[in-house]
């Protein structure tokens, strides 16, 4: 008797080796998965305490240096300058912290973390949205540190608690939109070390060529034209109005419009670049 060694016939129907269709998730599932990824981003601080020091020491250092080095020369006294400059320092610090988004994303891409995430039954956007959510928490921490240090040094909030909460909300809304530029940078930069080089090349002129640290009228006429429309100027003026009083509506609207523009331009580019690379 001979044995039939031919392979058994495969059942008719769809190919068994065909890849499974991408899993669709509900908005609630997407939110839960994004929060989980945000928690993953924040837990990394436990294993890298120097990051928390950076989030705390950098804003303190900027407040001390600008207040006591430039305060007397620009405003006549450190106290008066602090009332003017703290809104600008908050705006500058918020934009500088978006570099964390780019650095973390570049590191994850280099280590293949995003490739491993794709094998999980989660929304494809969850790792990216979680990274940005985690960086929002970092933003809020640094903002609290700046305000506490400012109050200790003599800064006085002369508006209402509602206005202070509005300042928090405006800052988070703009930095969320601006973060798309950092996402694009993190995807395009093949090496995480190059992220800061490229990032600060853009952020330094954007923040320092504004009225964040000096009144616009003290600058040359050719520079004032740019300073007047600079998004950092509009956000700094809006934060000053919400914290110490002054015009708010026009500056807040301009800040939000700038945020919409950043998101509209860099958001699709960042998503396209990420899909292309991953």
TrEMBL record:
<comment type="similarity">
    <text>Belongs to the ABC-2 integral membrane protein family.</text>
</comment>
<feature type="transmembrane region" description="Helical">
    <location>
        <begin position="195"/>
        <end position="214"/>
    </location>
</feature>
<dbReference type="Pfam" id="PF01061">
    <property type="entry name" value="ABC2_membrane"/>
</dbReference>
<feature type="transmembrane region" description="Helical">
    <location>
        <begin position="81"/>
        <end position="102"/>
    </location>
</feature>
<feature type="transmembrane region" description="Helical">
    <location>
        <begin position="140"/>
        <end position="157"/>
    </location>
</feature>
<keyword id="KW-1133">Transmembrane helix</keyword>
<keyword id="KW-0812">Transmembrane</keyword>
<feature type="transmembrane region" description="Helical">
    <location>
        <begin position="55"/>
        <end position="75"/>
    </location>
</feature>
<keyword id="KW-0046">Antibiotic resistance</keyword>
<feature type="compositionally biased region" description="Low complexity">
    <location>
        <begin position="8"/>
        <end position="22"/>
    </location>
</feature>
<feature type="domain" description="ABC transmembrane type-2">
    <location>
        <begin position="50"/>
        <end position="277"/>
    </location>
</feature>
<keyword id="KW-0472">Membrane</keyword>
<feature type="transmembrane region" description="Helical">
    <location>
        <begin position="248"/>
        <end position="274"/>
    </location>
</feature>
<keyword id="KW-1003">Cell membrane</keyword>
<feature type="transmembrane region" description="Helical">
    <location>
        <begin position="163"/>
        <end position="188"/>
    </location>
</feature>
<protein>
    <recommendedName>
        <fullName>Transport permease protein</fullName>
    </recommendedName>
</protein>
<dbReference type="InterPro" id="IPR000412">
    <property type="entry name" value="ABC_2_transport"/>
</dbReference>
<dbReference type="InterPro" id="IPR051784">
    <property type="entry name" value="Nod_factor_ABC_transporter"/>
</dbReference>
<keyword id="KW-0813">Transport</keyword>
<dbReference type="InterPro" id="IPR047817">
    <property type="entry name" value="ABC2_TM_bact-type"/>
</dbReference>
<feature type="region of interest" description="Disordered">
    <location>
        <begin position="1"/>
        <end position="22"/>
    </location>
</feature>
<dbReference type="InterPro" id="IPR013525">
    <property type="entry name" value="ABC2_TM"/>
</dbReference>
